[in-house]
Amino acid sequence: MDIDNQQAQQNDVSFANVWQELLWRGLIQVSTDQGELEKALSEETVTYYCGFDPTAPSLHLGHLVQLLLMRRLQLAGHKPLALVGGSTGLIGDPRPTTERSMQTKEQVAEWVADIQAQVQPFLSFEGDNAARMVNNLDWTAPLSAIDFLREIGKHYRVGTMIKKDIVASRLNSDEGISYAEFSYQILQGLDFLELNRQYGCTLQSGGSDQWGNLTSGTELIRKAEGKSVHAIGTPLITNSDGTKFGKSEGNAIWLNPEMTSPYEFYQFWLNTADADVVERLKIFTFRSRAEIAELELATAERPHERAAQKALAWDVNSLVHGVDATQKVIAASAAIFGNGELSELDEATLSAATAELPRATVSADGLGIVELLVAAGLSESNSAARRTVTEGGAYVNNRKVADLESVIETTELLHGRYLLLRRGKRTMAMVEVQDS
């Protein structure tokens, strides 16, 4: 995230307090006592935390919801604790259907560092309510098994634990659930207890599908410390048709640009359906209620302009990858369709922008326009390719080629090896040229 991005962020002053804004933005799916939470967030400085387990080398779209919730609360004056789970990542929270594959301790430690680096730009680590990064391995590693059972395990009842939705579904499956994953909720409860003791943390946030783990902590603190603390469960991000996004669905939108390129990331938001775009603007951008209302009206009256989608894509891509990367993505989109200079695109952006196009490989001595159109699959035969050229429908790197005998010079290759071929306005293919 750019520093300028962070400085431009603010909560909407048209709301009475941050809790009311969170409700309006649809960020509260479930919570402990709403009245008490609103009172605390309005009258006190609350220390709160969210945990991120290193079960992959990157966070994804669902985690972005948590990061933005944390940022909104920090902007309201509250103190965030960002927990990256060096110990819980060694176990992994139970998945709905199958046991997780455990990673090595070295791999988990590497992912802890990766995710800490991803979390850090979203929060401010300066000022009176500076964020703090914490790792639960710091307090779980020194615990012996006996101490863990005596001091923490004694507060848990197996009957209650097996009623948790995720545990119940796994118990009823053919695979069942291991004791390791079954115990995950105790480890997460321990995190909340430890953060409450060390930093006075009284609020935890997480996805609503983690509600059983969230309340594990509130119950443990009630039993061990005699205190009442709070939890917030945010909604899972789905399309209006119910489609989910995440690792388990195989279509995760990653925050790491090497796993989901800025171009793919931008296009994901740009392709948001009209039915979903307003809710996405509320959750994923810092645009005000008034600004979002204007975009909602534009979507209703002039849907073809896709003003809301463009605003959403710009805001979220800039937030995650920076303004410069977003400008490159927009330039790439324009250049691919003939409204910009392809030669000005860096290789990574060009590759991402053309990733879904048909691709072909040719030798450097086969760069005649007719042969290229056929090799790229844009024409079925030499005669069809010749018709395309004579009718003015053949383009190489957005340059119209009207001469049937034209041979493309190697000086025209993008990054020394690529050609973008187009037939007509929108039918394209990428050709990679190899030395003959």
What brief labels describe this structure?
436 residues, Rossmann fold, 3 domains, 6-stranded mixed beta sheet, 5-stranded mixed beta sheet, Structural Genomics Hypothetical 15.5 Kd Protein In mrcA-pckA Intergenic Region, Chain A, Tyr-tRNA-ligase_bac_1, elongated, 11 strands
Describe this structure in words.
By secondary structure, the chain is of the alpha/beta class. It folds into 3 domains: 3-239, HUPs (Rossmann fold, 3-Layer(aba) Sandwich); 262-353, Tyrosyl-Transfer RNA Synthetase (Orthogonal Bundle); 359-434, RNA-binding S4 domain (Structural Genomics Hypothetical 15.5 Kd Protein In mrcA-pckA Intergenic Region, Chain A, Roll). The chain contains 21 helices and 11 strands. The chain is elongated. The two termini are 44 Å apart.
Explain the layout of strands and helices.
Blueprint: H1 3-8, H2 18-24, E1 30-31, H3 34-43, E2 47-52, H4 61-75, E3 79-84, H5 88-91, H6 105-119, E4 132-134, H7 137-140, H8 145-151, H9 158-161, H10 165-171, H11 179-182, H12 184-199, E5 203-207, H13 211-225, E6 230-234, H14 262-270, H15 274-284, H16 289-301, H17 307-321, H18 323-336, H19 347-353, E7 359-363, H20 369-375, H21 382-390, E8 394-396, E9 399-400, E10 418-423, E11 427-434
Parallel strand pairs: 2-3, 2-5, 3-4, 5-6, 7-11
Antiparallel strand pairs: 1-6, 8-9, 8-10, 10-11
